[in-house]
UniProtKB/TrEMBL annotation:
InterPro entries: ASHA1/2-like_C, START-like_dom_sf. It comes from Sphingobacterium tenebrionis. Pfam families: AHSA1. Belongs to the AHA1 family. This is SRPBCC family protein. Residues 13-136 form the Activator of Hsp90 ATPase homologue 1/2-like C-terminal domain.
Length: 138
């Protein structure tokens, strides 16, 4: 069965350098990496290089559930793009481009087979929206 690709994107009112750094710096990641206010990201590790690993702990604020979102980088082009493979072999590609004072962030990821694709798209988009809010107000 072919894996379905899902795309989310956001136009962020900030320069590319600021967007790239906030997207990849663990001290920033813990401030934006959640899909809703009842979740948070208590810890983040990021070895931003090909073969490097990242691990972000995602947790419900009430303590009812948590998981590690982790993967290995397969491509890193600073201030342009990065790609990674998750533990279940799904892949994701993130592209950054600057135009007219905004930075466009495009994320293309493989859908997993458990949850509806629309639900996955909404979750990844909510995290990207949280990122946008964080960067624009930082």
């Amino acid at each position: 069965m072919e894996t379905q690709k899902v795309k989310v994107q956001s136009a962020i009112n900030a320069p590319l350098k600021k967007v790239w750094e906030a997207y990849n710096n663990p001290e920033d990641i813990v401030n934006w990496n959640q899909a809703s206010p009842d979740w948070h990201c208590p810890s983040s590790e990021n070895d931003l290089r090909v073969g490097g690993k990242f691990k972000n702990k995602m947790a419900a604020k009430d303590g009812s559930f948590e998981f590690d979102f982790e993967g290995t980088y397969t491509e890193v082009t600073p201030y342009n793009s990065l790609s990674y493979v998750l533990g279940d072999e799904r892949t994701a590609d993130v592209r950054f481009s600057e135009s007219n004072g905004q930075t466009l962030v495009d994320v293309l990821f493989d859908a997993e087979g458990t949850n509806p694709v629309d639900m996955q798209r909404e979750g990844w988009q909510a995290i990207l929206n949280s990122f946008k809010d964080y960067v624009e107000n930082k």
